[in-house]
Amino acid sequence: MIRGFYTILGPERSRLTVFLFWVVVYGTAQGLAMLTLVPFVRHLLDGDVEAAAAWLWPLAVLVAVGACACYIQAMQGMRMAVYSMRMLHHRLGDHMVTLPLGWFTRDRVGDVSQIAVKGTMFVGSTGAHFITPVVANTVSSVVVVIGLCFFDWRIGVLMIAGAVLLALVGRASSAMLADAENRKRGATVDVNNRVLEFARCQAVLRAFGDAGSHHVPLSESLAQQARIGKAMMWRSVLGILLNGLSVQIVFSAVLAFGAWLAVTDRIEPALLIAIFGLAARFFGPIGELAELGSTLRMSTDEINRITGVLDTERMPAPDRPKELTDHGRIELDSVAFTYDDSSPVLRDVSFVARPGTMTALVGPSGSGKTTIFRLIARFYDVTDGAVRVGGVDVRDQDTVTLMRQLSQVFQDVYLFDDSLRENIRIGRPDATDDEIAAAAETAGVTPIVGRLPDGWNTRVGEAGSALSGGERQRVSIARALLKNAPIVLFDEATSALDPENEAHVAASIRALADNSTVLVIAHKLSTVVAADQIVVLDDTGRVVDIGRHHELLTRGGRYAEFWAQRTAAAGWTMAASGQ
Ligand SMILES: Nc1ncnc2c1ncn2[C@@H]1O[C@H](COP(=O)(O)OP(=O)(O)OP(=O)(O)O)[C@@H](O)[C@H]1O
């Protein structure tokens, strides 16, 4: 556990060393103070009050040293706990923004929230409350046992053997709990995820008649958690019983052995009584250590989880980022990509989007269009081939340079629970209100502002819940316009937009295309027709054709099929394609 603490404290590990130093001083003073009681009691029982009183001085000094060390270590421990909690949040946050997006799976997100909130609190309180009793009790017990060997080596050896036995029993009982605790933690993460899902997806659940409080996946997770909790409780009771029983057995053995030594005249009775007093003091901390065992292990597990996150490899960053050579150009060069261990999503994908042109990506659902966007924005690294943005491989650019070149308009727009104006300002934090208003005008946000109760200052609710889907997309377009990046990745809405929204989106794409290279996942036929080039993907993630609308239609094949299906669905006729 202490090694784990050293890892997570990083450059501030000297704080732990200083803290531990004072804890060891405290434990040693405690142990020595206990040892001085032996000659003190022995002389008292022998009736030599003067000799007994002489031991009061070292005792007083040791108590004073112990008290000072106790105070200093408590202050150091508190500071270290506060620091480690604050610093851990920063370190976790800083590290997580460098991890590939693929790392943030649903389970992991639940786990990370546990680690960031409960885990860091737990680790902090371990530093403040548990390291001291564990280290100080261990040190004082060792000092007592070693000192005891000088008074009577036979009882000393017996107590060393007893301490080893107690340590083994403590280990066994805490290992017994380990598995149940891990399973309980997994169950808690699952319950957290299910509760969030239950709260967030109320609309879907109600629509499909699952609105009662007995949402089956949630009920199952809760039942599982209760089962594991019960098993854990039994194991922990058993562990406490085992520890308590073994302390009693070892203590009784010491008493019986001491009594035998006294009866057989092998030890002076006064010394034996003093040693018994010391033994009673010795087994107190030992018992406490055994009880702390499971807390310690839980804390070690939390530390391991935190270091697990901190040790996860970041997206590799180039040592020397390269200068951009071809602003606004996107090139995919024989790109292959596979998510985790699944089958390839993209195979040998190559195309170039030239500056100032619009490229439409079309293909069946699941053909990898969104994945191409993710690779361009380097949410993931390609499995094979290369993605070049601005003429340079995205792996040879730093994140800031890459992101500065890209604006992204996704379907699942995330709006923050802030005012409408601030949600647009995210596009360019230093933009003036006039610039925001101009972008909003082009994207068609201005009419929305008029409808909202507080106009520009209206909070749009968590995830933009105060706005409709079409309105959220217009806000997202306004962000992109405001950013005015050389490249725009635009994912058109799949759902039919009302004519007003449709007109705004079309006007916005035109406005974006004036200054930028636009790559659009096209769902609207008008966008496809207007594109400078169309990249057609098939359902295996291969590019099957590239060209303008008329060329592709003339060539026939996949694009002609796609066009026929879409025009039929949209109520267009093939003749309309000539528009
Ligand atoms: N994070 C992910 N982890 C694993 N597989 C994924 C992930 N995201 C997408 N996929 C899979 O990759 C394939 C391509 O998905 P992608 O979203 O790129 O397709 P798409 O062409 O954009 O689809 P649509 O038109 O329906 O949005 C699909 O089979 C999908 O299930």
TrEMBL record:
InterPro entries: AAA+_ATPase, ABC1_TM_dom, ABC1_TM_sf, ABC_transporter-like_ATP-bd, ABC_transporter-like_CS, P-loop_NTPase, Type_1_exporter. It comes from the Bacteria. PROSITE patterns: ABC_TM1F, ABC_TRANSPORTER_1, ABC_TRANSPORTER_2. The keyword Transmembrane applies. The chain crosses the membrane at residues 20-41, 53-72, 130-151, 157-178, 237-263. Its main location: membrane. It is a multi-pass membrane protein. It holds the Pfam family ABC_tran. Residues 330-565 form the ABC transporter domain. This is ABC transporter ATP-binding protein. It comes from Gordonia sesuvii.
